[in-house]
C-alpha cells in the first residue's frame, strides 16, 4: 500500500456535527448549507478536561476501497492525529461527499454516510483511554458502532487484549482494517506504567447492526460507544444490545455531544440495564473548533444474569 502526504484540510461535512444526523437522502438537500457557530455552555462548577488535537497531515492511500454493493470505488486518505504521545493514522474516504453521492447514485438513499467522518467523540474517548489505560488494559473490548474505529484503536494502543470493531457498514470495517495495519496493531510492545510488556494485540472487525436481537460477536469486558444516540429510534435498541455484549461485571464507556440530543441520552440512562457509575465533561479542540463531550461509565454486575 503506497501513501503520499497531502496538506490537511477541514472536513467537508464538519457542519454536520452541529445537527442531528440525517440519511444520505436528507443530507443531499442541505449539503450546501452554512450554519452559525454553536456556543458551548460553560456549566459552572463542573471540572473539565481540556485537550487540543490537530490533524497533522492527510496521507493519500493509493489503493482505493474496491467496489461493493454500492458499485463504485472510494479514494482513501490516512489522517494523522496526535493523541497524547501517540500519532495515530486513521484511514477514511478522501471525500466524505463522495460517500454521500455513492449511496444516492446506487439507490441506497436511506444509508447513513456518517461513518466516513472522524468525529470528536471518538477522539475524546481515544484520548481518555490512552490517559487511563487501566480502563481497558488486558481486557476484551468492543467498539460498538465503530465508524472509523479511532476509539477502538485507542483501546488497542492502551493495552487491550483484544478489540472487536462492530459497525453495520462493511466499508467502514475495511477502512478500520487498513487503519490497524498503519498503526502496527498486529503486534505491540508497550511500556505500561513503567513495566515492559510484550504481547499480541488482536484487532478484528464484525458487521453488526444494533437492531440485531441476538448479536453473535461474543462477550466483552468493556463496550465503547461514541456518538450513537443521535436518533431517538436507536436509543431502545442500544439499551437492549449493550448488556448482551457484556461479560459479567462488564462496563460501558459512552461519549456523546451534550448539546445535540440530551433527551436521547436521558432516555438511554433510564433504559439501559446498568448503573451509571460516573459522568463527566471532556473538552477538546479539533480542527480549530472546541467540542464538549459527555463521558459516562456504566457498570454491569448481577443485572447481566437476566440477559
TrEMBL record:
Gene3D superfamilies: Vaccinia Virus protein VP39. This is Uncharacterized protein. It comes from Cymbomonas tetramitiformis. The lineage of its organism: Eukaryota, Viridiplantae, Chlorophyta, Pyramimonadophyceae, Pyramimonadales.
Amino acid at each position: 500500500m503506497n501513501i503520499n502526504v497531502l496538506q490537511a484540510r477541514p472536513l467537508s461535512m464538519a457542519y454536520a456535527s452541529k445537527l442531528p444526523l440525517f440519511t444520505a437522502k436528507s443530507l443531499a438537500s442541505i449539503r450546501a448549507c452554512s450554519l452559525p457557530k454553536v456556543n458551548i455552555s460553560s456549566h459552572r462548577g463542573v471540572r473539565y478536561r481540556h485537550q487540543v488535537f490537530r490533524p497533522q497531515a492527510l496521507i493519500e492511500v493509493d489503493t482505493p476501497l474496491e467496489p461493493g454493493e454500492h458499485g463504485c470505488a472510494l479514494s482513501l486518505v490516512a489522517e494523522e492525529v496526535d493523541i497524547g504521545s501517540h500519532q495515530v493514522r486513521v484511514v477514511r474516504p478522501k471525500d466524505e461527499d463522495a460517500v454521500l453521492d455513492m449511496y444516492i447514485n446506487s439507490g441506497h438513499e436511506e444509508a447513513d454516510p456518517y461513518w466516513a467522518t472522524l468525529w470528536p467523540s471518538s477522539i475524546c474517548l481515544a484520548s481518555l483511554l490512552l490517559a487511563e489505560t487501566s480502563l481497558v488494559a488486558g481486557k476484551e473490548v468492543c467498539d460498538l458502532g465503530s465508524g472509523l474505529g479511532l476509539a477502538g484503536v485507542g483501546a488497542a494502543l492502551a493495552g487491550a487484549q483484544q478489540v472487536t470493531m462492530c459497525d453495520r457498514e462493511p466499508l467502514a470495517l475495511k477502512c478500520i482494517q487498513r487503519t490497524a495495519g498503519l498503526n502496527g496493531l498486529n503486534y505491540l510492545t508497550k511500556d505500561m506504567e513503567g513495566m515492559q510488556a510484550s504481547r499480541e494485540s488482536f484487532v478484528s472487525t464484525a458487521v453488526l447492526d444494533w437492531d440485531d436481537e441476538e448479536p453473535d460477536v461474543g462477550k466483552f469486558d468493556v463496550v465503547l460507544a461514541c456518538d450513537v444516540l443521535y436518533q431517538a429510534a436507536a436509543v431502545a435498541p442500544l439499551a437492549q444490545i449493550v448488556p448482551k455484549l457484556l461479560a459479567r461485571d462488564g462496563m460501558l464507556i459512552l461519549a456523546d455531544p451534550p448539546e445535540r440530543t440530551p433527551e436521547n441520552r436521558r432516555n438511554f440512562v433510564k433504559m439501559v440495564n446498568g448503573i451509571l457509575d460516573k459522568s463527566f465533561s471532556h473538552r477538546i479542540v479539533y480542527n480549530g473548533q472546541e467540542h464538549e463531550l459527555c463521558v459516562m461509565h456504566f457498570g454491569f454486575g448481577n443485572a447481566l444474569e437476566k440477559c
